[in-house]
Design brief:
Largest sheet: 7 strands, parallel
Strand content: 15-25%
Structural class: alpha/beta
Strand order of the largest sheet: 8-7-6-9-10-11-12
Number of helices: 17
Shape: globular
Oligomer: single chain
């Protein structure tokens, strides 16, 4: 009899369903997690909500085979260590989505109509009607960063208010956006034009601190910002510096820790809630139901669809998956991150051809920050199907003698008029970029900090780029300067000791009249 430990407040449906199927279930939301771990060392399945699952907890459960996160985000679970210990980690994507979407609408209305402060004032015996002059949601422009399950449901929930929706999502196809009634655009335009901005992006190395002063300063006076995603994506000090001047209305539901005590954001938040996004009867039931059903399917049918830390197949070096991710991410940067690809074409040479399905998850992760690279091939296929992106794996000519190499091309537009592509391989156990679009024979290790600048070929450009970097004490470690004879353009690639700030990238772009300029960072 398998033991399932549920050390969290989860609807009893999960425990009841699992018990009916012969599992030994311990459901205890009151006892400290550490004590429950000590008392149940024979646990094989751990079902959690927002509890932090560390290597120490995993080590304390020697029979553990599966961790199920009853919810979408799994940043509280050390999935890499779980993989090392042979423990699969699942999530239940979409279970909480509607609850969070409805919470966003509630926060907008509460802030616009002074529901909280008005209630407190009236209960105190005051009658401050003129003080609480509100605003209407109808007719406003709402910007949504992240159009996954929550973002798409938010679009639908707002439809009755006749709002204009601007959306940013690096993976959503224009066709699906049109169907939803969303105008896809860049992050800066969303912050500049929206009356309300709602954040629904994951927290990872790319998004941490992404919502910063540069964006706050673009906001309209009196605009509203809502964070029901993750605490770390927003720079709190930057918001504090700009809020008063811009009169930004800030609604917040996420914190560094879900625990009692003072909250550092209290002085800048107009509406604060104790992480209530998924805290509804319906969401709790749905998450419980899916967690139990996925556990049963996992053990009884071998279904691993929602496992987020799948192991590699035999014979595949994980470096090739990293290469697929880097090539895709670099091609997307060259394409322009504001351009959502509508088609992906891949070529896998040599022995890599048989591992093509396992290259798809890191490829998808390279264009979609909210997709984990260690998902399975089927998850990646489903993700592309849901977002309307076509995938083509081309037949290859191994007589070209590329060895174990791969080419990844991204296309934009209904008639595929524009593309960006990258080819690479593994050399001396290192990632190597051999081609970027028409620039061949690069032989570049893309690890570290790199500045890419493309321009019409002319003398003195590299010197100007180096001079601008030198003015800011940025050291140059390596320089590549290939030409594309077909276009007459040159590409200068500068490896630096630190990341080149966006403001400096723009300065270099203007100084050399670059057709493209972007910073690319990969730190494995």
């Amino acid at each position: 009899m398998r033991k399932v430990l549920i050390p969290t407040k989860l609807d009893k449906y999960a425990a009841n369903l699992l018990s009916e199927r012969g599992y030994a279930v311990v459901l205890d939301a009151a006892t400290e997690l550490s004590e429950q771990i000590r008392n149940n060392p024979d646990t094989e399945v751990l079902i959690v909500r927002s509890e932090k699952i560390t290597p120490e907890i995993i080590d304390a459960l020697p029979q553990l085979k599966l961790i199920v996160r009853a919810g979408a985000g799994y940043n509280t679970i050390d999935i890499k260590y779980a993989r090392k210990r042979g423990v699969d980690v699942m999530n239940t994507p979409g279970a909480n989505a509607n609850a969070v979407a409805e919470e966003v609408v509630a926060m907008i209305l509460a802030a616009y109509r002074h529901m909280i402060s008005g209630d407190i004032s009236t209960r105190a015996g005051n009658w401050e009607k003129s003080k609480f002059l509100g605003r209407e949601l109808t007719g406003k422009t709402v910007g949504i960063l992240g159009l996954g399950n929550i973002g798409q449901l938010l679009v639908r929930r707002l439809s009755g208010f006749e709002v204009k929706i601007l959306g940013f999502d690096p993976i959503m196809s224009p066709a699906l956006a049109d169907k939803l009634g969303v105008e896809l655009c860049g992050v800066e335009r969303i912050f500049a034009e929206s009356d309300i901005v709602s954040l629904h992006i994951p927290e990872n190395d790319e998004t941490r601190g992404m919502i910063n002063r540069r964006l706050f300063e673009l906001m309209k006076p009196g605009a509203m910002l809502i964070n029901c995603a993750r605490y770390g994506i927003l720079n709190e000090e930057d918001l504090r510096a700009v809020k008063a001047e811009k009169k930004i209305i800030f609604c917040d539901d996420v914190y560094p820790k879900d625990a009692p005590g003072p909250k550092s954001v209290a002085d800048v938040a107009d509406v604060m809630l104790p992480h209530l996004g998924a805290n509804t009867v319906e969401a709790n039931f749905t998450a419980a139901k899916r967690a139990a059903e996925q556990t049963i399917a996992y053990f009884e049918q071998g279904v691993t669809k929602c496992v987020v830390n799948k192991a590699l197949p035999d014979g595949l070096d994980e470096k090739y998956q990293k290469l697929a991710y880097v090539l895709t991410k670099l091609a997307h940067a060259y394409l322009g991150r504001e351009n959502n690809p509508t088609r992906i074409e891949t070529s896998f040479y040599g022995d890599l051809a048989r591992f093509e399905p396992w290259m798809l998850p890191p490829i998808v992760a390279g264009i979609a920050a909210d997709f984990a690279a260690d998902n399975g091939p089927k998850d990646a296929e489903n993700f592309l199907a849901e977002t309307g992106i076509e995938l083509v794996n081309r037949e290859v000519d191994n007589n070209k003698h590329y060895g174990e190499a791969m080419t990844i091309d991204l296309f934009v537009g209904g008639n595929l008029i524009y593309k960006a592509g990258a080819r690479g391989t593994i050399t001396e156990n290192k990632l190597m970029l051999s081609r970027l679009n028409g620039f061949d024979e690069l032989y570049l290790d893309p690890t570290g900090y790199h500045l890419f600048v493309e321009y019409a070929d002319a003398p003195g450009v590299i010197g100007r780029i180096a001079g601008i970097l030198g003015e800011k004490n940025i050291n140059i470690i390596d320089i590549r300067a290939p030409q594309d004879l077909a276009t007459g353009n040159s590409l200068t690639i500068v490896k630096t000791n630190v990341e080149v700030p966006e403001m400096l990238v723009e300065k270099i772009r203007d100084a050399v009249q670059a057709t493209k300029a972007f910073e690319f960072t990969y730190l494995p």
